[in-house]
Amino acid sequence: MPQGQIFKAISGFYYVRTLDGEELECRARGVFKFAKKKVKPLVGDMVEVEKTGEAEGVVVSVEPRQTELLRPPIANVEQAIVVCSLREPPFQQMPLDRFLVHAEREGLEIVICLTKYDLIEDEHEVAQIRAIYQAADYPVVTTSIRTGQGVEELQAYLKDRVSVFAGQSGVGKSSLLNQLLPSKELQTGAVSRKIGRGRHTTRQVELLQLSHGGLVADTPGFSQLTFHGMEAEELGSCFPEIHKNASACRFRGCLHINEPHCAIRLAVENKDMDESRYQHYLQFLQEIKQQPRRY
Ligand SMILES: Nc1nc2c(ncn2[C@@H]2O[C@H](COP(=O)(O)OP(=O)(O)OP(=O)(O)O)[C@@H](O)[C@H]2O)c(=O)[nH]1
Ligand SMILES: [Mg+2]
Ligand SMILES: [Zn+2]
């Protein structure tokens, strides 16, 4: 039976690229279960297919996932390229920090990509953003599709890896991918002048093949992420600046709020951890504590 990977899913159809490079349009047989949980196939899933026609088949089994993101929905990516625009829409740190927590929790490698650099007059602002995230050991790439800046640098991160582009609508994910793909094929859409937000141009997750090797997924922009299903104790390990210093806290299980001899609060005072990142940590912690408990 042919094996392959789902590269696109549209209203009940799964598009599978087999190991021989064939593309099959498939339905799925029933519901799949792993670890007693029911799952629907996701883009990125490795599957087994029964051929039912020339270019048609049925997905009969799904392999356990290496990684799984629900927003955007994709399985088996190793790396997240977190895309944020510097302008149109303006840079916002909070949604970036939210997404970083999710990607860290899944154990993904992370690259932060700041787009639309050509719209920047004040380099100082970009240097500040860069400093905050480099202090957390994240690589930061600045790009522009107008000048071509950063495209090669990004390409080097993507080579031979399985990556996903994630970020809000209108930040330029598809535009950037068009610079990296052999044929410029992805649809892009102008940001609304009136509301200053993207128009949700990309509608599906699609896993694309890079000509220099590697796979990359374009995804629809998403707005708000919540921390559903996450425990307060997990949050610190999703902030690299906290994770690397947490063992120096006096109490095991320190939540770094106002416990005595907290190494993280000291790091913030000494400016080893950025104050705004710490404030976001505290805010996310509040949100997690206010979530209805699961039983
Ligand atoms: N000035 C400038 N505009 C850009 C750049 N990159 C993208 N844009 C513009 O930003 C708008 C949105 O780009 P898209 O690529 O559709 O954004 P997206 O992130 O894919 O959005 P969704 O598919 O809705 O999630 C388009 O009008 C692009 O031309 C850039 O580097 N500089
Ligand atoms: Mg898009
Ligand atoms: Zn602490």
Which labels suit this protein?
Ribonucleotide Reductase Protein R1, domain 1; single chain; 3 domains; five-stranded mixed beta barrel; binds magnesium ion; OB fold (Dihydrolipoamide Acetyltransferase, E2P); alpha/beta; binds guanosine-5'-triphosphate; Rossmann fold; about 300 residues
What features would you describe in this structure?
It is a single chain. It is built from eight helices and 15 strands. By secondary structure, the protein is an alpha/beta fold. The chain has three domains: 3-63, Nucleic acid-binding proteins (OB fold (Dihydrolipoamide Acetyltransferase, E2P)), CATH 2.40.50.140; 69-218, 3-Layer(aba) Sandwich (Rossmann fold), CATH 3.40.50.300; 232-290, Probable gtpase engc, domain 3 (Ribonucleotide Reductase Protein R1, domain 1), CATH 1.10.40.50. The protein has a six-stranded mixed β-sheet, sandwiched between helices. A five-stranded mixed beta barrel has the order 1-2-3-7-6. A two-stranded antiparallel sheet has the order 4-5. β11, α2 (123-134) and β12 (140-142) form a beta-alpha-beta unit. The model has no long low-confidence stretch (mean pLDDT 93). It binds guanosine-5'-triphosphate, magnesium ion and zinc ion (ZN). Residues 173-174, 201-202, 218 line the site of magnesium ion.
